[in-house]
Amino acid sequence: MSDHRTETPATEDGRPGRTRTARRRIVPLALVAVIGASGALAATRPWEHRASSPAHSPVGHETVEVRKGSLSSGIQVGGALAYDTPTAVVPAGRGTVTALPAVGTVVRPGATLYEVDGGPVVLLRGDRPMWRDLGPDTGDGPDVEQLERNLIDLGYANGLGLKADRKFTAGTATAVKRWQKALGVQQTGTVTLGSVIMLPQQTARVQQVDAKLGSAIGSTAVMTVTSTDLVATVQPADNQTSRFKPDGRVTVKLADGTTVGGRVRSLIRGGTDGGGGNGQGGEGGGGNPEKTTVTIALDTQHQPQQAGASTVTVTVVGDTAEDALIVPVTALIALDGGGYGVKVADGATTRLVQVRLGLVADAKAQITGDIRDGDRVVVPV
Fold it and tell me: CA–CA separation, 349 vs 68, rounded Å?
């Protein structure tokens, strides 16, 4: 449909007059729609040009229907399920590696993680690595408290009245001997450096094995372990990063089409160390370390565990407008004095209607004003 232009009446002195429409001169539109504080959207009406620029060729245009519906500023980002909290296992002490677990093995506190010189290296839970022998002659310290907490949790302190109090007592030694008897090793009452690995995971899953059988214990990692829980990780574009708020809610669509809720747990900027729970590296991880990585804790583990390490789609729900009148952003015209309008096709003519702008997303805009569902507005082609 062609753009209709109305003849301008002359004044008494013969000079062209200015109608109300002409006084509200249409100017090129530069609409920047900030979607959730990120992303930019621009639209112009290039066929609207002044008489002082006759050399410019008119740009074609057509009409589209104003539709009523819902509009959301949410975004979707592809990602992956990965096992949580990858942690390198760096041994202490000396010796030769004599047994290693297979990738995927799940080890619980109190069980053997690997062997050195034919003896077990046992997994215990704690944030502080062992750095000395722990026995009756050991001075007080948080490493003693950490050991005692494990002995209590594993049931070896039952009936001893043992408390996790940083002091290595006779009760502590007795609990250690009970534990050593269960392991089938010499009951000395002393935990030697290198016989225990302290890790923060409640349960460790072997993700990657780095050491070789027969290799000497050194300062490099024997393996990498993770939690048995899965998390979703995504690497959003720079203009999407601000949409991932701390503790913000998201929806995670699994490879089989089912969805689970999630919560934004961490955001690690690109170029930093990806360890400590971002799900990067090793099995199920991957991604570009130069990009920002967002880690999402899942509300449930049942469905994700069935899917295993796989691809996902994460949706960040933004603002939503229901029962809204929606037009393409290219239909909007910036008006002198501020505000926006649209050209509504009315038979063989068009009329400029001023509108109020609401939510803008996905190159569409919510508008209100003297306009109805089913009206047709002019857009460039």
Answer: 23
**Which residue do the tokens 């994700």 mark?**
304
| Tokens (6 digits) for 102 | 């297979």
* pLDDT tens, residue by residue, 239-275: 899 889 999 999 999 999 999 999 999 999 876 444 4
Tens-digit pLDDT profile for residues 304-330: 999 888 999 999 988 888 999 999 999
Neighbouring CB atoms inside 10 A of 232's CB total 28
207, containing H or E segment: strand 204-209
Q: Give tens-digit pLDDT for 33-77.
A: 333 333 333 333 433 433 334 444 456 789 999 999 998 888 999
CA distance 50 to 111: 82
- CA 32-266-207 angle, to 5 degrees, is 130
Beta bridge mates, 121: 114
Query: Which residue type sits at 299?
Result: D
Q: How long, in residues, is the chain?
A: 381
Map residue 214 onto helix, strand or coil.
coil
Beta bridge partners of 324: 69
The residue to which tokens 């002393």 are assigned: 190
Distance in angstroms (rounded) separating the CA atoms of residues 225 and 379:
57
Hey, what are 302's tokens?
């049942």
This prediction's pTM: 0.66
217 residue type, one letter: I
> What angle (nearest 5°) sits at the alpha carbon of residue 116, between those of residues 110 and 117?
130
The tokens 């050491």 sit on which residue? 211
